[in-house]
Design a protein that fits this description.
The chain is of the alpha+beta class. The chain has helices at about 5-10, 10-15, 20-30, 45-60, 180-190, 190-200, 210-215, 220-270, 285-295, 300-310, 310-315, 320-335, 350-355, 385, 490-495, 500-510; strands spanning about 85-90, 95, 115, 140, 145-150, 155-160, 165, 170-175, 215-220, 390, 400, 410, 430, 445-450, 465, 470-475, 480-485. The chain is elongated. Residues about 125-135 and about 285-300 have low confidence and may be disordered.
Length: about 500
């Protein structure tokens, strides 16, 4: 692909999934490969530039402003554009290592130089004591390139935009000699993944001076460096504009989707408004047949359904709109608006009789103010406690916990997805090797929920125990729900996943 073709197709590339982010990476890659702008045969070759850099380093070393350069490993022969040279970064720069301050070197008076400790500090000021000004200490100058060398942000870089600053051991300062600073910066940015791979250490990974000094750079003539920088700035700026435009379109689409689904759910919930929804122990006036015949069919209005159907592909063509659709489906389901009712179904009043035989005490009547939406005429409001039983888990002794395979698998909040469903922890699976009372052994198909919000979105998130050959035990802080034979656990599973129930649960639980 020629530079001209790439630029012509730029906006098209940006529309691909994650297109803008990939474009940013591709721009840097093409830039350092000499494929972003055309070469000019009249440019002075990079080999001449390298001799000028060597002369400048020797001059600075004689003045005591630069340590004598150490010998760098040779670079294997590599193909490069005409007039370019492939070298180690250390041959083009001075590299300043950071140091930590002692507590005595801080002050709160605003005196001294800023002290930078990581990428988050690149644009901030952290004053330190003025006596920390020795030339042999870690001082970065304005326009130096800072690169993170310790921690999760290894390889992140930025330019010192303020005056002289002290830098900690998490940072090093790259100071280009003669070569274009911005070209060196974009070269470092293109090497981010390489620096990440070179990080050594588990808790606090890091790279050393050699990783930076030995970094291989394809060096173009100085004039071409500047042309490349200008083109990169132009294209990355265009990326910013495209990203902003896409974000605005996504926001507008989310608003449109939300309004369409809200209107659909809202109208569906208000279809049966001629009389209140029946509650436990109540029937519609005039008997079952009259009660049903006076109501409109419990389905969303055709106009809303048709609009959703006709524009479905346009409304739900990005992952960000799927959660809204999912919640609308669940909301329509628990409101009785997702499928038509069948007059031949067993009346829900029979469920009341079966439930009464299994309950000694009812939770009490349901007030009209408690009813959140209208139901189809054949449905009845119940309190969850009147149609289910909740069993708490057992606090098993941690002395028997093990990561090695054992007779029992311990269920934990880590076994739940935030949107419902059982998560197999695989390598993080916890086992239990101690004695277990049979009443705390879970069976395949048991419906369990977390009873505490140990992670955002987990409270009340349902999961069925899988039939995978393992024996799961009922741990503390987890509840097991059981129902009469007239209640479908799968329906309860989806009810527990709807936004209405989760919101009420979060509101009422402390």
């Amino acid at each position: 692909m020629t530079p001209e073709t790439f630029i012509e197709q730029f906006a098209t590339f940006a529309e691909a999934p994650n297109g803008v982010a990939k474009l940013r990476e591709l721009i840097l890659q093409l830039a350092v490969q000499g494929k972003l702008v055309p070469q000019d045969v009249n440019d002075e070759p990079a080999s001449l530039l390298l001799r000028q850099i060597d002369d400048e380093k020797s001059r600075l070393a004689k003045l005591g402003k630069l340590k004598s350069p150490s010998q760098l490993p040779r670079v294997d022969e590599r193909k490069s554009p005409h007039g370019w040279a492939v070298v180690r970064l250390g041959s083009l720069i001075e590299l300043i290592s950071g140091q930590h301050l002692t507590p005595e070197e801080y002050n709160e008076t605003g005196e001294g130089h800023p002290y930078l400790t990581g990428p988050a500090d690149f644009g901030e000021r952290h004053p330190v004591a003025t006596r920390w000004t020795h030339a042999d200490r870690a001082l970065a100058r304005q326009d130096d390139i800072l690169i993170t060398v310790k921690g999760a942000g290894i390889g992140k870089s930025n330019i010192v935009a303020t005056e002289t600053a002290f830098i900690s051991r998490q940072l090093m300062a790259v100071r280009p000699i003669i070569v274009d600073r911005d070209f060196v910066h974009l070269t470092l940015r293109s090497g981010y993944d390489q620096f990440q791979r070179q990080g050594v250490g588990i808790a606090i990974p890091g790279i050393g001076r050699e990783d930076i000094l030995h970094f291989v750079v394809a060096l173009p003539p100085l004039a071409e460096q500047r042309r490349i920088v200008l083109k990169v700035d132009q294209l990355l700026g265009l990326c910013d504009e495209l990203a902003a435009s896409q974000a605005a379109r996504r926001e507008a689409r989310l608003a449109l989707v939300g309004a369409t689904l809200d209107r659909l759910v809202s109208r569906a919930s208000n279809l049966n408004t001629s009389s209140p929804s029946p509650r436990f122990g109540e029937r519609g006036s005039g008997g079952e047949g009259q009660h049903r015949s006076q109501r409109r069919p419990p389905h969303p209005q055709p106009m809303d359904v048709n609009r959703l159907r006709d524009h479905f592909d346009r409304l739900f063509d990005t992952p960000t709109t799927i959660p809204q659709l999912r919640q609308a489906i669940l909301q329509l389901a628990v409101q009785g608006q997702l499928v038509p009712q069948d007059p031949n179904d067993e009346p829900v009043e029979n469920l009341q009789i079966k439930a009464e035989r299994t309950k000694e005490k009812w939770a009490g009547p349901i007030d009209e103010q408690e009813v959140p939406f209208q139901l189809p005429p054949s449905w009845i409001w119940f309190r969850l406690g009147d149609i289910s039983m909740l069993k708490h888990g057992y606090a098993f002794s941690s002395a028997f916990f093990t990561s090695e395979p054992a007779p029992f698998v311990l269920t934990t909040p880590g076994n739940f997805y935030e949107k419902g469903g059982f998560r197999d922890r695989e390598s993080k699976r916890k086992y239990y090797s101690g004695p277990v009372d049979p009443e705390f052994i879970l069976k395949p198909g048991d419906l369990i929920i977390p009873m505490t919000e140990q992670a955002a979105g987990l409270l009340g998130s349902p999961a069925f125990i899988p039939d995978d050959g393992r024996v799961y035990i009922h741990n503390q802080r987890l509840g097991k729900l059981s129902f009469s034979e007239s209640i479908a656990p799968e329906f309860v599973f989806w009810f527990f996943n709807c936004e209405f129930f989760r919101g009420e649960l979060a509101r009422t639980c402390t």
